[in-house]
């Protein structure tokens, strides 16, 4: 066998072995489930915001504009968290508080009848914006921890890929479950049931994360887009 071919086979075997170690480790799976517990309620809320606003009587382009602002707040939260971590904020310290704030603001946004209050839709919009802004801390933190979540002898890109697949599963399930709940209950007020269940699961799982000493992450590893 030519030397180049033999080297290629050894490289492929080594790569598969690294992927296997990664898939067998618990930390990447746990982190991926935590990510899914974030993206599932986020997509459930933000994905249906235009419909929620229109069902509440809002007309014109406002449902789309306000939904875009809420989505942009999530990006601001992620960028701000990344900046804080570059300044020395320990990774992982914001995950539980972010989930708690998401739960509280989702209850305020959907369990409260804002139409009967002076703040009206503006109050609900403020709650959803804080929900999205704070939630942005979770993906920023988890992606910064990729190197720490990769097992010894494992593959950081494989860790990223596994987390992204679970992230995508949450993105798919969120709107589906939210629509089912709204259909069963007759309105969107039940959305907080979903958000609180997911945030509680996210908190529980995040407390089980046991990152190891940080290892370098290849610069080519890209963050998943929402």
Automatic annotation (TrEMBL):
Gene Ontology terms: cellular component: plasma membrane
Keyword check for DNA damage: no
Record-level Gene Ontology MF annotations: transmembrane transporter activity
SUPFAM superfamilies hit by this protein: MFS general substrate transporter
Family annotation (InterPro entries): MFS_dom, MFS_trans_sf
Annotated localization: Cell membrane
Record PROSITE patterns: MFS (PS50850)
Bilayer disposition of the protein: Multi-pass membrane protein
Protein name, entry field: Major facilitator superfamily (MFS) profile domain-containing protein
């Amino acid at each position: 066998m030519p030397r180049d071919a033999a080297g290629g086979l050894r490289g492929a075997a080594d790569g598969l072995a690294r992927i296997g170690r990664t898939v067998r480790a618990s930390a990447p799976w746990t982190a991926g489930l935590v990510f899914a517990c974030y993206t599932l309620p986020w997509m459930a809320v933000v994905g249906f915001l235009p419909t929620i606003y229109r069902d509440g009587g809002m007309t014109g382009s406002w449902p789309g504009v306000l939904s875009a602002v809420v989505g942009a707040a999530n990006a601001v939260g992620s960028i701000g968290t990344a900046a804080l971590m570059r300044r020395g904020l320990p990774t992982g310290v914001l995950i539980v508080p972010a989930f708690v704030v998401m739960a509280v603001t989702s209850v305020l946004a959907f369990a409260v009848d804002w139409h009967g209050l002076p703040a009206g839709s503006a109050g609900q919009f403020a709650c959803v914006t804080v929900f999205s802004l704070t939630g942005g801390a979770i993906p920023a933190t988890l992606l910064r921890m990729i190197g720490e979540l990769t097992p010894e002898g494992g593959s950081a890109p494989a860790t990223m890929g596994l987390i992204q697949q679970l992230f995508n599963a949450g993105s798919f399930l969120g709107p589906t479950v939210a629509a089912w709940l709204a259909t069963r209950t007759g309105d969107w007020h039940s959305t907080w049931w979903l958000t609180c269940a997911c945030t509680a699961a996210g908190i529980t799982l995040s407390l089980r994360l046991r990152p190891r000493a940080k290892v370098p992450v290849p610069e080519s590893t890209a963050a998943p887009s929402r």
